[in-house]
Design goal:
The structure holds 2 protein chains of 2 kinds. Chain A is 33% helix and 29% strand. Chain A is α/β, with parallel strands linked by helices. In chain A, a hairpin with a 2-residue loop joins strand 9 and strand 10. The radius of gyration of chain A is 24 Å and the shape is elongated. Chain B is mainly α. In chain B, strands 2-1-3-4 form a 4-stranded mixed β-sheet, with helices on one face. The chains are: A alpha/beta, B mainly alpha. Chains A and B meet through helix 2 of A and helix 1 and helix 8 of B.
Chain lengths: 309, 441
């Protein structure tokens, strides 16, 4: 699979402060790419460079194989974290204006806006001013404006902040559909759990450095610790614990069993199948819970930061 | 270019659709004219209020002829009552005041012993009027005393009018000079007003984009420089439209009022002037000089003047409004703009003051020449100088400097603008602005 966006050795400094330090990222075509990291890590700086709002001090960026240039703006859709629209402008006029700035003709923009307004059932807002709408309503308009020109690359900075759960779900569905139609999507967020399930690829950024990137499943495999959460219905917890501790690393767990029994996190040696553990446990009681503890993006982040420093 | 056009269009429409803009456009000329009329009628009413002034002339020097009644002042001779009695009467009755001319040995002593008593402090014009009446009479008497024929004195008064020519044979006169001053001052003043009103409106529009947080969406579609330029041009167009409408409305009002109501607009304007000024104006009109003024106006190098006017007007506006845009970008709210506004307003106001103080007296003196070169004051000062005929090389230097500074300032403002529009929270200092200018990309 080829890459839609290739970011090579990008560095950006603001005076003394380094916002991005030699960051290299490849974003595959048709993927959902999670750009994850805490506040102030440099995510927004990177996004602004991709959007050509600012220029990097050094490094190159290729969009679809070509060096980034002004005309590429029309192939990128950007929903910034700080959202806003002209307050005293009417919804329709404003959407038309923003679409035309992205290079759509007025007629084409009108046609597509009608489609989206019908889809979101907001046709009645066309002649309303933004200041008359609620925050959630304005966000919907903003989402439409972001995707209207059918960009190859969609960048969402903190996409779900400000949406109520129902609208957040609606937006998530639309985003995944856009991916299925061929768009490449970048999610940037510091709340890693919020988009993890949607991402095919992730990159973790901390203090202006990229610390991990790759396919989410690969990274998870790489960071898995072969730890399993178990729940065994038994009246002989003490004995089992002693037996397990002879063979494995056993730590307490936060899992709560409905019946009385034994719970623990058990780490088995690498390259060993969990089947051995299962058959051992089955001898002592009824196995009710057995779950591999797959590391979350958050766990991976914490581990990676520790490893780095 | 297409995007620039879109931005200009949006900025223009956003400005002219604004309710306060519409109100300003149509109400302020009415308000201006209304206030003019109000002043006119009030001063007329004021004059209709007849003042009764009595005089006690112990010397018996003055006759009824010396105190001729005017429309607003009536004089009566109360000498027979004596000063003490008259004072009592005046204080009790409906009189404005008493002029007391005591008996003195000589005219010189008398000249400084005349007194005026009134209930309230008298108006300057009444006292001035009385003083001129009394001193004219006293001078007349003194001349008689000295045995000088006042007719001869009158005959000896020769008024001089120096005719002025330049070496290309162009005639000028005080009247024409006055006209040139008028044209220059109006042009300079218009530019200052325009910069102040629409420059700050550019600034406000930048701040609005920042506070509504739409800015990041816009700059991900267009270059910040395009946005800034579009804003400046859009606001300037709205401003020109507004000025144009004001001109038309004022013209219509003056036409309608002079034909329908028979009120002469010049009379309304004249109510703000002193009687002497009106007299000279009337004299000028009487001698057919009004026509001369109009003729002279068209004899000025109008095409050149107009081109220069456009150049300096636009140059000045763009220079200043790019600075206003940079200030708008640097701050989060209008209240934070104060510290940056002063350095922008200062050269503007300086230009107008220097223009009024020096160009009128000496259009080609060193001060006005220098200030018509300095780019920040040159649009205003040069506009004031232009009607007097400025050597082409001075205009060339001034234009080149303005153009150069304009490009440099727009470049610098664009830098500040580009960084500033995405900065929130901290109120920037001048040091910050300097740092922003140095940022790459």
């Amino acid at each position: 699979m080829s890459n839609l966006l290739e970011i090579n050795n990008v560095t950006k400094k603001y005076g003394e402060f380094t916002a991005l330090n030699n960051v290299t990222l490849n974003i595959p075509k048709g993927s959902v790419f999670g750009l994850l990291g805490p506040n102030g890590a440099g995510k927004t700086s990177l996004i602004r460079i991709i959007n050509q709002i600012t220029l990097p001090d050094s490094g190159t960026i290729l969009l679809d194989g070509e060096p980034l240039e002004q005309s590429h703006i029309e192939q990128i859709g950007y929903l910034p974290e700080e959202r806003g629209l002209y307050k005293s402008m009417k919804v329709g006029e404003q959407a038309l204006y923003l679409a035309q700035l992205k290079g759509l003709s007025k007629i084409e923009a009108k046609k597509r806006l009608k489609y989206w307004f019908d889809k979101f059932e907001i046709g009645a807002w066309w002649d309303k001013k933004i200041e008359e709408l609620s925050k959630g309503m304005a966000q919907k308009v903003q989402f439409i404006v972001t995707v209207l020109h059918q960009p190859k690359l969609l960048i969402f900075d903190e996409p779900f902040s400000g949406f109520d759960p129902i609208n957040a779900q609606l937006i998530a569905k639309e985003i995944l559909q856009l991916r299925d139609e061929g768009a490449t999507i970048i999610f940037s967020t510091h709340r890693m759990e919020s988009v993890e399930e949607m991402c095919d690829y992730i990159a973790l950024i901390n203090k202006s450095n990229k610390i991990v990137d790759g396919k989410l499943d690969d990274i998870k495999r790489q960071y898995r610790s072969n730890t399993f959460q178990i729940g065994l219905k038994t009246s002989n917890s003490k004995e089992i614990e002693t037996i397990l501790k002879q063979q494995f690393e056993v730590t307490p767990t936060d899992y709560r069993m409905l019946n009385e029994g034994f719970t623990a996190n058990v780490k088995i040696p690498e390259n060993e199948s969990p089947n051995g553990l299962i058959s051992l446990l089955m001898k002592y009681g009824e196995l009710q819970h057995f779950l591999e503890l797959v590391p979350s993006a958050n766990d991976i982040f914490i581990q990676a930061v520790h490893k780095n420093s | 270019m297409k995007k620039l056009k879109l931005i200009i269009r949006r900025e223009f429409l956003a400005k002219i659709k604004n309710r306060s803009f519409i109100m300003m456009t149509f109400l302020s000329p009415l308000l201006m004219v209304g206030i003019g009329f109000l002043v006119f009628f009030l001063s007329k009413k004021n004059d209709e209020n007849v003042k009764n002034i009595v005089y006690v002339d112990e010397y018996q020097l003055f006759s009824k002829d010396d105190f001729e009644d005017s429309k607003s002042v009536h004089y009566s001779d109360y000498t027979v009552l004596g000063i003490e009695e008259t004072k009592k009467k005046v204080e009790a009755g409906d009189y404005y005041g008493v002029l007391y001319i005591p008996k003195k040995d000589s005219l010189e002593v008398l000249a400084n012993s005349i007194e005026f008593y009134s209930k309230d402090s008298p108006s300057m014009s009444v006292i001035g009027n009385l003083e001129s009446k009394v001193s004219a009479k006293l001078r007349h008497l003194k001349l008689d005393q000295l045995g000088i024929d006042s007719e001869k004195i009158k005959a000896s008064r020769i008024s001089t009018g120096i005719k002025m020519y330049n070496f290309s044979g162009e005639q000028s006169s005080k009247l024409i000079n006055g006209l040139k001053i008028g044209v220059g001052v109006i042009a300079g003043y218009l530019l200052m007003m325009f910069v102040m009103i629409y420059g700050t409106s550019v600034m406000r529009s930048v701040i609005e984009e920042k506070t509504s947080r739409i800015i990041e969406i816009i700059v991900s579609s267009v270059k910040p420089f395009q946005l800034m330029l579009g804003k400046i041009i859009g606001n300037a167009s709205a401003g020109l439209l507004q000025f144009f409408i004001w001109g038309i409305i004022l013209l219509l009002i003056s036409l309608v009022s002079s034909y329908v109501f028979g009120i002469d607009m010049t009379e309304v304007q004249a109510s703000k002037l002193s009687p002497e000024q009106i007299a000279t104006m009337k004299a000028a009109a009487g001698n057919g000089e009004m026509q001369k003024v109009i003729q002279e106006f068209f004899r000025l190098p109008l095409v050149t003047n107009f081109i220069l006017f456009i150049f300096y007007f636009l140059g000045g506006f763009f220079l200043y409004s790019s600075l206003f845009a940079a200030v708008g970008a640097a701050v989060d709210s209008e209240t934070d703009t104060q510290q940056f506004m002063l350095p922008i307003m200062l050269p503007l106001i300086l230009g107008v003051y220097v223009g009024f103080a020096t160009v009128i007296n000496d259009p080609h003196g060193p001060i006005s020449t220098i200030f018509s070169m300095i780019p920040f004051t040159s649009p205003i000062v040069m506009l004031m100088r232009v009607p007097f005929g400025v050597p082409w090389y001075e205009i060339a230097i001034s234009m080149a400097l303005l153009l150069f500074t304009f490009v440099f300032m727009v470049w610098m403002a664009a830098k500040i603008y580009r960084v500033g529009i995405l900065m929130y929270g901290k109120k920037p200092t001048y040091k910050d602005l300097y740092k922003w200018i140095k940022y790459k990309g």
